[in-house]
Amino acid sequence: MDKEFDNQVLNTTIMGVVQHTFKSMLHVQSVVEPVVVERDIIEFDGCMRVFPMEKFNGPVFIAFVNFYYDQKEQDANNAVGAFVLFVKEEVAEKFLKAFGRPTSEAEDEEVLLDVVGEFCNVLGGNVKNELVGLGYVDIAMSAPYKYKNSVPEGIPFDYSLYQKQEITFTFWNQKCIVVEACMGYVSQKREVV
Fold first, then answer.
1. Paired strand residues for 188
2. Mean pLDDT (whole number) for 23-30
3. Which of 22, 64, 94, 190 is the most buried (most CB within 10 A)?
4. What is the H or E stretch that residue 20 is in?
């Protein structure tokens, strides 16, 4: 049986990364603690199902990255983890400023999808780097995938997992992003695998 990744480490890392990134890139802080819920993974055809419209009861942008133990596993598409970002549609335009884009581009859905994808890439990369800083091996990460309202084919994940973490964040006095994440076993540098 595989060892399990410590979900408390994953949750704390994600919360710290999201809060720091929002403060540094968007110049906003949350006065509300993030809400963490552990949820069962619903699997279909080997992928994790996600239900974006349930997060906000309305339109939502979705972006995700996958983590892989190494490049060989990435080439084989054997994900060890997933980081999924759900962004309430009316909040997505606030991300334009973080990437130096004019707010006039908020009318273009493709631009908003790209910006949400870029933001997911930043967050996922920062989570990966924080885990390395905590002594875990440096894992590989995919480019971001982006969608609106649904992810029909689902999200690759470590098939040995049964649960994922759901973390809801409040910024600008509203629930505006939700992160779902799961991580299979990743060794620490000092361990012999």
1. 136
2. 92
3. 64
4. helix 7-21
Read off the pLDDT of each residue in 107-120 and give the average, rounded to a whole number: 92
Residue with more model confidence, 91 or 82: 82
Residues 145 and 121: their CA atoms lie apart, in Å, by 9
The pLDDT value given to residue 59: 93
Q: Name, in order, each residue with C-beta under 8 angstroms of 148's C-beta and a sequence gap of 6 or more.
A: 59, 60, 61, 62, 109, 113
Residue written as token pair 């990435």: 74
Query: Where exactly are the structural domains of the chain?
Result: 7-183
Average the pLDDT over each of 39-48, 105-114, 148-157, 166-175 and give the range with the smallest value. 105-114
Phi, psi (5° rounding) for residue 126?
Answer: -70, -35
C-alpha to C-alpha distances, 44 to 37, 50, 110, 153, 156, nearest whole angstrom: 21, 10, 28, 9, 10
Residue 143 is classified by DSSP as P
> What is the second-level CATH architecture of the domain 7-183?
3-Layer(aba) Sandwich (3.40)
Whether the Cβ atoms of residue 120 and residue 143 lie closer than 8 Å to each other: no
Q: How far apart are CA 68 and CA 142, in angstroms?
A: 8
Within 45-173, strands assigned E span: 47-48, 60-68, 81-88, 140-141, 145-148, 163-171
